[in-house]
Every structure is written in C-alpha cells, then in structure tokens.
Amino acid sequence: MPAHSKSKNRKSKISRADWARIRLFAMDVDGVLTDGTVLISSDGTEAKVFSILDGMGLVRLNRAGIAVAWISGRASGATARRAQELKIPHLIQGRTDKFAALQDLAARLRLTAAQCAYMGDDDIDAPAIAWAGIGAAPPEAMPAARAAAGFVAGRPAGRGAVREVCEQILAAQVQTTPA
C-alpha cells in the first residue's frame, strides 16, 4: 500500500494553523466523491455511488460555516441531486478548467488561496490542487494530482477520502475557537 504510507508522510507537512485557515473546501466529483465509475443505462439514465461518510463530513463543514463547492468537468443530474440533498452551496458543472473555476469562486467569496482547500484526482485538477492553500488527492489519483497535493488521503475516493479532509478542517477549527 504505497499510497497509504506516502499519505502519512504528506499529512505531516500541513500544520494545524494551515487547516484552521480554510474557509472553502472545493473538490472534483467523479473520482473524489465517487470511485470514478459512472453507470449509464440503455435509456441514458445515469447513476453514481456517493459515500454517506463523505456526505456527513460535508454537512458538518457547512454547519461549521466552512463553504463547500463541487467543481465538475461534466454536467450530471446525479451530481446535482446529491448536491441538493446535502445543501452544497456552490455547484459548478461543465467546467474543465478547475483552476479558473476555483479562482473565480474564491474571488467571489473574497478568499485567498491560503483559505481554500481543493481535492482532485486527475491531471485537470492538478493546477487547482497546487494553487489552493491545502491541495489534496485520494490515494488512487493520477500522478500529477498526487504530486501537486500536500495531503493524500488514506481512504479511497468515494469511500471516505473527502471525510478525511473534512475531519482535518473541523479538528483545526475546534482547536482555534476560543472557549
């Protein structure tokens, strides 16, 4: 499991103060919130599998006042439906330039790169991962995405990788909140 052992080394590079600065957690959808599989039936309907663990982490971030965004290169009704269920405030679909989409959103929210975390799994995510104050990737991400990431999750995409980032952000928020 080289990706898992590598993740332990990479986690230590991000300080608690870095996690505490995060005000936006943005991520790709396919290959991050899902395992990258898209099921398309003969009538054209699409299905995806999303993790309840990841969903609960995102709900907790929203409750803590951390903005959440999904930035997907392809439009998907299944993605829109899941975003609606979780009350994801920023859903951007059909944007393959994830870097530009993330920068645009950060500017609208008046956030700096240091206040943004981004998780992606593919080459088109790498510039956004590198730009964000905290860049993250699931363990099975493509090499360019993993190389750009300061945090590589131990859990797989669609099975808790996003939750790991949520937990890091939330733990830092709790520690920095005055008693």
Structure commentary:
The protein is of the alpha/beta class and 179 residues long. The chain has one domain (22-171): HAD superfamily/HAD-like (Rossmann fold). The chain has helices spanning 2-11, 16-20, 52-63, 77-86, 98-108, 126-131, 143-148, 161-176; strands spanning 24-27, 39-40, 46-47, 67-72, 90-93, 116-119, 134-137, 151-152. The strands form 2 sheets. It has a 6-stranded parallel sheet with strand order 5-4-1-6-7-8, with helices on both faces. A two-stranded antiparallel ribbon has the order 2-3. Helix 3 runs parallel beside helix 8 (161-176). The longest helix has 16 residues, at 161-176. The protein is globular. Residues 1-11 have low confidence and may be disordered.
Q: Provide a count of the helices.
A: 8
Q: Report the span from N to C terminus.
A: 40 Å
Query: CATH H level: which superfamily?
Result: HAD superfamily/HAD-like
Structurally, the number of domains stands at 1
The number of distinct β-strands equals 8
As for the CATH topology, it is: Rossmann fold
Instruction: Tell me what portion of residues adopts beta-strand conformation.
Output: 15-25%
Q: Name the average pLDDT.
A: 91
Based on CA atoms alone, the radius of gyration comes out at 15 Å
Low-confidence stretches: 1-11
Q: Which class in CATH terms?
A: Alpha Beta
CATH architecture: 3-Layer(aba) Sandwich
Give me the side-by-side strand order of the main sheet. Answer: 5-4-1-6-7-8
